[in-house]
Amino acid sequence: MRKKPRGALPRLIGVLHLTPLPGAPCGAGADPSCLLAEAGERAVKEAVMLERAGFDGLIIENFADTPFFKCTVPPETVASMSIIAAAVRESVKIPVGINILRNDGPSALAVAAVTGCSFIRVNVLCGVVATDQGLVDGDAAMLMRKRMELSAENISVLADVHVKHARQLSSDDIALAVEETALRAMADAVIVTGSTTGRAVDLGQLKLARDVAKKHSIKLYAGSGCTAANISKIKPLVYGVIVGSAIRKGGMAGAPLDHAALRAFARAFKR
């Protein structure tokens, strides 16, 4: 069987912050089917909003499932993400991605493979970081082999370097991290973020990442803190951006999408 080619990666990716899924403490006491229905309905609605606003990609994230499992999530999370991803895929024509927090790349890959999604995000693909979930170490060797096993080479892997909400235990050299994540761990693109959700990327660090990414033809994303006000400074340094907080009501991660903020960001990005 011929390998399926990977499609072009989107440049403007909006994040779908899901409401609590079955099993999450934030949804305690609610009927699992009701939780899933609520999360799915909002996800489909917001996916359509993103597409209509001019975003050319989106990524689904189990944002409200705090506290997060360090790596492997339970079966109910995988089942829920699969059902929601399938519904979102049916509702839009733009590429859809999957991120299962905190760092369940294999489950994200499985969900993407069975629902026809185009890419996944992996917070720690290689190296070791200290997080609020404990020590998290990447396993690129296993993930890339699983991608082959599933005949899912058409699914791109976007991987964070110096991921937010974490402290690096390997190297503080962001240029080296970009090189190793793309060239040794075989990520299809790398993501640079600020220190926490919604916090802007340090432009000095982003420029260092840009320089090495350009040298090796690596696709580079800014993955947090992008706003309509600062995107003009960030866009020239990256292939694309991933935005969640700035397009939501009050600029708050997890809040519903805001029509005006969505369109303002899309206009600013396309200038």
| Share of helix, binned | 25-40%
Alpha-beta content class:
alpha/beta
| Backbone CA Rg | 17 Å
Quick one: overall form? globular
- The appropriate CATH architecture is Alpha-Beta Barrel
Describe the main β-sheet briefly: 8 strands, parallel, barrel
How are the strands of the biggest sheet laid out side by side? 1-2-3-4-7-9-10-11
Number of helices: 8
How many individual β-strands?
Answer: 11
Number of structural units classed as domains: 1
CATH class: Alpha Beta
Reported by name, the CATH topology is TIM Barrel
The fourth-level CATH homologous superfamily is: Aldolase class I
Strand content: 15-25%
Task: Give the overall average pLDDT.
Answer: 94
The secondary-structure element order is EHEHEHEEEHEEHEHEHEH
Low-confidence stretches: none
Q: Tell me the distance between the termini.
A: 43 Å
Blueprint of the fold:
Layout: E1 12-17, H1 32-53, E2 57-61, H2 75-91, E3 96-99, H3 105-115, E4 119-122, E5 128-131, E6 134-137, H4 140-149, E7 156-161, E8 166-168, H5 174-184, E9 189-192, H6 203-216, E10 219-222, H7 231-234, E11 240-243, H8 259-270
Parallel strand pairs: 1-2, 1-11, 2-3, 3-4, 4-7, 7-9, 9-10, 10-11
Antiparallel strand pairs: 5-6, 5-8
Helix pairs in contact: 1-2, 2-3, 5-6
